[in-house]
Specification:
single chain, 350 residues, alpha/beta, 7-stranded mixed β-sheet, 3-stranded antiparallel β-sheet, 14 strands, 15% strand, globular, binds pyridoxal-5'-phosphate
């Protein structure tokens, strides 16, 4: 993609239009079409997407939002920014995502939304969550930062809830050359509000109907994303075939990996294993010159930042899984030989 990207970047530089503009507008339309929704609103980051999605739903001080403790901190930070309180509910040990069976017990009169995360690219089980949201009059906001292009129940990730929030941070499976984010929604009123929020609360320049934010996407980032978006199906298919090979080569080892249901399509943002010997696996990989990582070593309810909010809270499935996860190399360009070598090292240490 290099020459196509170089050319697109130079064209933006020469246009002298750097913040919002024709590439951002085109990207919004292309992502909305890809996801099968009416609207997409480009923002400065995935964290902003979550924050502004919550704001657009009227969530603020005195409210509670139910989410998973097994995610990147930004999911909970976005809730805290609004003044609302993140309420952590334990995960399903089979999917590593929010356990729908535990949500209802956590709903109070202050609850306004449920914020599931599609961790590692595997869609959370949304149907029962949507039913609970409907029953209790709650919004469902999806954190799709790791799941661009995943499917659930015949819909693209982000298209199931009221709002779907994407990050295009450079490490994500659709990645910009810096920070970038997006919200998708079918609700015109929410999309309109988000466009005003992202641009200092203004529809007409220097007229501000509310106190807004500076969360606009750059043309340079949009130009890069438009080129990569054309290849996202191929990238995700390559991740899936790499994962299938990992699964096959590791099937006889005492290792567990979250697996998709028949109604979902995992896009393997990460390929993650569970093992009681994960530290031995990591050191064997490291000695062989192979990278590995732990996403995430400390669940959010045990983070220092939430020590007052969550004092004494125990979420056993999440805590056990956080102590046993290890993620192996995963990207579209991995070769069969590389995966075979990685699996040799993992199997010997497992
Ligand atoms: C990356 C990530 C975010 C934050 O996105 P940024 O673009 O880095 O702000 C939020 N939630 C999850 C699950 C993420 O992986």
């Amino acid at each position: 993609m290099k020459s196509e990207i170089d050319h697109a970047l130079l064209a933006v530089l020469e246009s002298t239009q750097y913040v919002l503009g024709p590439n951002v507008e085109a990207l919004e339309i292309e992502v909305a079409c890809y996801c099968g929704v009416g609207h997409a609103v480009a923002l400065a980051s995935g964290t902003d997407a979550l924050h502004l999605a919550l704001r657009a739903c009227g969530i603020g001080t005195g409210h509670e939002v139910i989410t998973t403790p097994f995610t990147f901190i930004a999911t909970a930070e976005a809730i805290s920014y609004t003044g609302a309180r993140p309420v952590f509910v334990d995960i399903d040990a089979r999917t590593f995502n929010l356990d729908p069976a535990l949500i209802e017990a956590a709903i109070t009169p202050r609850t306004r939304a449920v914020l599931p995360v599609h961790l590692f690219g595997l869609p959370a089980h949304l149907e029962p969550i949507a039913a609970l949201c409907h029953k209790h009059g709650l919004k469902m906001i999806e954190d799709c930062a790791q799941s661009f292009g995943a499917d659930y129940g015949g819909r693209k990730s982000g298209a199931y809830g009221d709002l779907g929030c994407f990050s295009f941070y450079p490490s994500k499976n659709l990645a910009a050359f810096g920070d970038a984010g997006m919200i998708v929604t079918d609700q015109t009123g929410l999309a309109d509000a988000l466009r005003v929020y992202r641009n200092h609360g203004s529809r007409e320049q220097y007229h501000h109907s509310m106190v807004g934010y500076n969360s606009r996407l750059d043309e340079l980032q949009a130009a890069v994303l438009r080129i990569k978006l054309k290849h996202i199906e191929r990238f995700n298919a390559a991740r899936r075939s790499n994962a299938a090979l990992y699964n096959k080569l590791l099937r006889d080892s005492p290792l567990v990996t979250p697996s998709e249901d028949p109604d979902s399509r995992h896009v393997y943002h990460q390929y993650t294993l569970l093992s009681e010997r994960r530290d031995a696996i990591r050191s064997a990989l490291s000695q062989a010159g192979i990278a590995s990582a732990i996403y995430y070593p400390v669940p959010l309810h045990l983070q220092h930042a939430y020590r007052d909010l969550c004092a004494g809270q125990r979420l056993p499935a999440c805590e056990r899984i956080a102590s046993q996860v290890v993620s192996l190399p995963m990207y579209p360009e991995l070769t069969v030989q590389q995966i075979e070598r990685i699996c040799e090292v993992v199997t010997a240490a497992a």
